[in-house]
Design goal:
Layout: E1 11-14, H1 19-26, E2 33-34, H2 49-65, E3 71-82, E4 85-87, H3 93-103, E5 107-118, E6 123-135, H4 140-150, E7 169-173, H5 177-181, H6 185-194
Parallel strand pairs: 1-2, 1-3
Antiparallel strand pairs: 3-4, 3-5, 5-6, 6-7
Length: 204
């Protein structure tokens, strides 16, 4: 039996306190709350990055779901891969400089997991987006200027694609440009429609 579209929105919770994911979800024109999932994000021994991203996305959604009823919970997790190895946050100028130097003229992959738990209909939806970022050949001056201006030391990969990081790229291959920032909105729209939410949403 197909779900009927709802004229009044159910409770929607974004299982993240990331300002970037919040801004992305706001683009859909929905009313929602945010919650921080308190989970251990340490990778398991020998765990492939793809499996880790899927596992953590689901764990975030399930953790937040424990404190809600009749809600829709949206969760996401992201990791970057370079030379088959996960890329961490640099946390310092020197490490960020080294990361971007390594990426010069190369390609990295961003894996973004998405999970939607629909408590109303007792359904769980999962997806994984892969985005490829192709870097320009970067000079030391390119890297220094960028790091000085944007200080992306808390960002995996040492850049912010929604900011000046875009100047470092040759091209991006993705099914959804929002995924690189942290939330695949195209796939999320499909999941929310499956939950019975009409999008675009027009308040009654």
């Amino acid at each position: 039996m197909s779900k009927q579209y709802q004229s009044d929105l159910p409770n929607i919770t974004l299982a993240s306190t990331s300002i970037f994911r919040k801004q992305l979800l706001e683009k859909l024109g929905l009313t929602f709350t945010t919650a921080k999932p308190n989970i251990n994000e340490t990778p398991l021994p020998n765990e492939p990055v793809t499996d880790m991203v899927k596992r953590l996305s689901l764990a975030k959604a399930e953790e937040v779901a424990k404190g809600t009823n009749n809600s829709i919970i949206i969760a996401s997790d992201q990791s970057a891969i370079f030379n088959h190895q996960p890329i961490g946050k640099p946390l310092s100028y020197d490490k960020a400089f080294q990361q971007l130097s390594n990426f010069s003229g190369k390609t990295i992959e961003f894996l973004t997991g998405l999970v939607v738990i629909d408590q109303i209909h007792q359904e769980t939806y999962q997806a994984l987006d892969t985005t490829k970022v192709f870097f320009r050949n970067l000079s030391n001056e390119d890297i220094h200027n960028y790091l000085t201006l944007e200080e992306p030391f808390e960002c995996a990969g040492s850049f912010k694609s929604e900011g000046l990081g875009i100047t470092l790229f040759e091209k991006i291959e993705s099914t959804d440009p929002n995924a690189l920032i942290g939330l695949p909105l195209i796939q999320l729209t499909s999941f929310l429609k499956a939950c019975g939410i009409q999008l675009p949403y027009l308040a009654k």
